[in-house]
Amino acid sequence: MTLTPVLTDKLAEPRLAVAGGFINGKWSSVSSRGKVFRVSNPATGEVLAQIPDLATHATREAIDAAHAAQPGWAALSAKERADLLKKLNRLMVEHADDLATILTLEMGKPFKEARGEILYGASFIEWFAEEARRVYGDTIPGHTANTRITVIKQPVGVVGVITPWNFPNAMLARKLAPALAAGCTVVAKPASETPLSALAIARLMEWAGFPPGVFNVVPGTDAAAIGEELCANPKVRKISFTGSTNVGRVLMRQCADGIKRMSMELGGNAPFIVFDDADLEAAVDGAIASKFRNAGQTCVCANRVYVQAGIHDAFVARLKEKMAQLKVGNGMEEGVDIGPLITGKAVDKVEDLLADAREQGASIEMGGAPTGEMTFYPPTLLTGATRTMRLAREEIFGPVAPVFKFETAQEVIELANATEFGLAAYFFAKDISRVTRVAEALQYGIVGINTGLISTEVAPFGGVKQSGFGREGSKYGIEDYLDIKYLCLAVDEV
Ligand code: NAP
Fold it and tell me: Has residue 33 got a pLDDT over 90?
């Protein structure tokens, strides 16, 4: 395993950079196949680390370790588990700058955003440390005079966690925290573009004093092999996945034989609706925040911007002005708003979607071609978008804002819901009846009303339709990692 100075020289605590798997409390520096893979900075192409390319064998070892550790972990008191999670939270906050540096270097988002992600991830650790102590059951009046019914909640067991590259810290923290709080143990497979953030969390957990086997990380490029082992191995009782809907479908099929529990945080196609009575400045700021965060590479990014005819031209003009102020560049540089896209393939996808939109009559008001340097793409504004364009149906995952003009609330509700996805939706309006009716009519798990920023640990994040099921955060989040059992007790007279 190798770490390069491109990475370690930028860290106040270089031990946070690790290039190995983490299994049963030990760092493994070699893969049984003798293979390694490279992690590179998408902004510069520089190699940050070479990591052992683990696959089935290591996944099985990690599952065995998690399985052996689970009863002991669950047997700790909720407070003991909570205390360790609180320690982890403190370490994440203390090392936020280094964790953000690792994140920016491996995936490209601006340092300020990366730091925000670390604190967001840490907030889930803190939240579920608190929730660990509130896993309450129920007592139910018995069905006969001599019966007592009590409902208790118990950890599901070993959880296989698979996470994407776009939030390499927070997507893991959102699963790890409720799983550990509930008394489950975890085997995590981070995205192969961004394993370093997950490994840094493992390092902090080692320092916090979590018992060996409670958390394991299996980095590797053979996602299909690792995924198959996690889904097929009977010692794993649940899969929690964040990623594309297509891979989600594969995992569901693989989990069918073992009737495994699942949580699925999948793709989105968020409508962002601006009604005539909206506060124009707030709507534009909301659109900038929702569309351009992480260079448009988030599952809750505005994908389709619907603007009512009466405010359309004013909105487009103001959005264009604000977009012109966004600076594209290396996320480690001060003042950068938009980093590179994750890979060349991501740039190609954006180009394909734009070519299709152009062919079908959309006008490019701004941007519309790669900068030519690495995978940087400028903020791009389109008007005249229509429902037949591919970008109306597919996740763009780039800094492209297509604007669709609409006339009535009924029309836009129908357009907004005309997708198999149902993760996040946004709208801006003031009329109270409109706000109420539209919020109720949108078929989405999350609706931002007069705001473009909706993510917080206190709310139940998750989708409907093909955006998945299960919730992360809030009092609901821990339920995904608990089984319900009822005790039916027959009592005699005394
Ligand atoms: P992806 O291709 O589905 O990859 C996600 C994870 O799955 C990665 O760790 C990947 O590993 C792994 N994977 C790929 N093929 C697999 C297989 N056959 N079996 C098991 N694991 C497999 O998604 P992505 O392109 O990285 O991420 C973007 C997607 O995530 C978007 O659709 C986005 O909307 C969604 N997302 C959803 C949420 C949410 O909360 N709903 C949040 C963030 C992102 P490798 O990296 O090694 O290929």
Answer: no
